[in-house]
Amino acid sequence: MLKYTVRRLLQSLVTLLIVVSAVFLLMRLLPIEGYFGDGYDKLSESQREAVLQKMGLLDPWYAQLGSFYAGLLRGDLGASTIYRQDVPVLQVIAPRIPYSMRFGLVAIAIALVAGLAMGVSMAKHKGRAMDKLWTGYVVFVNAVPLAVYLLFIQLYMTELLGLPLLFDKYRPSSWILPALSMSLGSIAGYAMWMRRYMVDELNKDYIRLAMAKGLPRSTIMVRHVMRNAYVPMAQYLPASILMTISGSIYIESLYSIPGMGGLLVDVIQRQDNPMVQGLVLIFSSIGIVGLFLGDLLMALFDPRIKLAKSEASR
Amino acid sequence: MANGEAILEARGLVIKFNLRGRALTAIRGASLDLYEGETLAIVGESGSGKSVLTKSLIGMLDRNGWVDSGSAMFEGRDLARIKDERDWLGVRGKKISMVFQDPMTALNPLLTIGAQIREVFELHHGLSGKKADYAVIEMLERVGIDNPEERRRQYPHEFSGGMRQRVVIAIAVACKPRILICDEPTTALDVTIQAQILGLIKALQRDLSFTTVYITHDLGVVANVADRVAVMYAGRIVETGLAEEVFYDSRHPYTWALLSSLPQLGVKGKPLYSISGTPPNLFNEIRGDAFAPRNPKALKVDFVAEPPEFAVSPTHRASTWLLDPRAPRIEPPPAILAMRAKLGGSSTGAAGGRL
Fold this sequence. Notes:
The complex is a heterodimer of chains A (314) and B (355). With 314 residues, chain A is mainly alpha-helical. Chain A has two domains: 71 residues, no CATH class; 217 residues, MetI-like fold (Orthogonal Bundle), CATH 1.10.3720.10. In chain A, 73% of the residues lie in helices and 0% in strands. Chain A has 14 helices and no strands. The C terminus of chain A is likely disordered. With 355 residues, chain B is α/β, with parallel strands linked by helices. Chain B has a domain of 72 residues. In chain B, a hairpin with a 2-residue loop joins β1 and β2. In chain B, α4 runs parallel beside α7 and α7 runs parallel beside α8. Chain B is globular, with a radius of gyration of 21 Å. In chain B, 45% of the residues are buried. Chains A and B meet through α9 and α10 of A and α2, α4 and α7 of B.
C-alpha cells in the first residue's frame, strides 16, 4: 500500500511538471504585441524592448523556464506583470482562493448527494418512468451548452425565487444559485455513472448468489450492489472536481464572484504570464490531487488493487 | 435413498416469458416429485428448461418470466403461487438453496469469504459476533478448506476455482436447507476437481440429510451421483426413473438419442453421434411430441397428438407413444443396445419393472 502510494505520488509530480512546462512554453508562443494591450502603437521600439526585457521575455526559452523553476523551488511564483503590476502572484490569488474552494466544495457536496441518489433510483427503477425522467435530465445537461442553461437559471430563477442576481459575500442567499449551477453538471455525471455501474453490478453472478442466500432486496442493494458500484465511481471523483472548477470559470464571471476562475480568463487574455502560470499550477495541482485521491480510494475499496504491482489492475 | 417421503410435488407447471411483447412458453406442463434425501439429476440439452424449472422453485425467474399455471407443493405451501418477493425469503436460501455454475464469478469480489458466509448465519440463524465467527470457521472446515481461521479473512481472488466452489457450497448449505439445487456445479472446473466437488456434495448430503437436485448435461456426473434421473426436452419432462432404469432401460426416443451421444459409446474411427436438427421454437404452439421432427423413427401419431405419460414401473415413467399398446415395436438404436449388453443391463427392454 505504501509503495503504491509513493509510486503514484511520484507519477503525479511528473504529470504536474509536464503540464506546467507545457503551459509555460505555450504562453511564450503568443505574439509579443499582446503584452502591450492598447499601448503598443504609442511606444517606441526601444521602449517596447525595455518592457520585454523587464518581463524577462528576451531571454532564450530554456533560460526563462529555468529561472521559473528556480523561483518555484524557493516558493516564489514571481510578480504579476500586467494585471496588477509588480504585485506578487500569490498575493493576487490568495484572497480569491477561499471563494473558489468554498463554492467548489459546496457544489461537490450537493452533486455527491443528489447525483448518487439519482443514480441509485435510476438503477432501481431501470427502464421505468423514474429512470427515463432522470435520463432526460442527464441528456439535457450534457447536450445543451452550459452557457445557455446557466444564463437561464441566473435570469429566471433569481426572479422566480427572489434571489440576488449577483454574488454578495454579505448575503448568504446569494450563494444558492451559483453553487447549485456549479453542481448541475456533476450531478448528471454522478447519476449517469452510478446508474451504469449499479446496473453492471446487478447483472453479475454474485448478485444471483446473494439472492439465492435469501437476502432481502434492500440488503443486496446496499451491501453488494452500491458498495461495489462505488469502486469504479471513485475514479470519477477527481473528474468531477475538475468539472466543477472548469464550470466555475464561467459561473464566477456570471455572478461576479471574486474567485480564481474568472481571474484565469482575464489574465490569459491580457497575457500576464506569471499570473497564468501560477493559476495553472494551482488548477492542475487540484486536478492531480483529485486523480491521486481517486486511485487511493479505489485501492481502499477494492482489495484486489493493493496487491497490484503495476498499473495493470486499473 | 429414494424411498423417503415426497417433499416437493410439482404438477403441470407452465412457465412463460415475455420477450418483446411475445409470450414464450419455456416450461410446458412439467410434473416432478422430489423425495427426502434423494439425489435427482435433471438432464437435457441447453434450452430444454432445466434451469428455468428449478429457478421457479426458489422464485428467481427473470423479471419477464412467470408461472402461468400448475402447482409446486412444498411444506404445505404452493410455491407456484408465491407472488410477493418477501414471501420467498422464507423459502429461498433457507429451505431451498442453490449452487451456481461458475465459482469464479459467483462470489462478491469486495467482501471477505467469511463475511459472505456469515451473512447466511446472521440472516437465517440470527447469529452474531463470536458465535457467527465460529459458525463460519466450522462451515469452512466442513467443506474442506484448510486454515479456516485465516482463510475466512481473505478475498475471493485469493482462492482457486475449486476452493471458491467449496465456499459457494458452504454458503448454500450454511442455512441447513432441505433441498440443494446444483446448477452445473462442476462444468467450470478442472476434471480432477470435479470429482472432489461431487464427493464433497455427497458427504454434506449424508451429514445434513438434504435432497440434492443436479442440473447438468454431463451424463458422467449423472451416472456418478444420481439416484433418479429426469430427462427434459422442450420444456417438458419426457422420461423419469431411477438412474439404472433411465440408463439401461430408457424408453423415450429422446433419451436414446441423448445416451447415444455419450462419447464413451462412440466407435473408434467413426464420428460421434449427434442429434440432428434443433429444438423447437418455444414461441410456437407445439403439436404432438416435441421431439418428433428430430426423430427419424417418429410415428405418425407423434406429429398429431401429444403422448400421455405411461408408467413403465412404479418408479419409471415416459411420455412417448411407443409405450402405447397399439404402437409398433421399435427397437432402441444399436448404440443403446450395445451399451445395455456391455453393462449387463437388459437388452430386450422387457424387464423394465425389475428393480
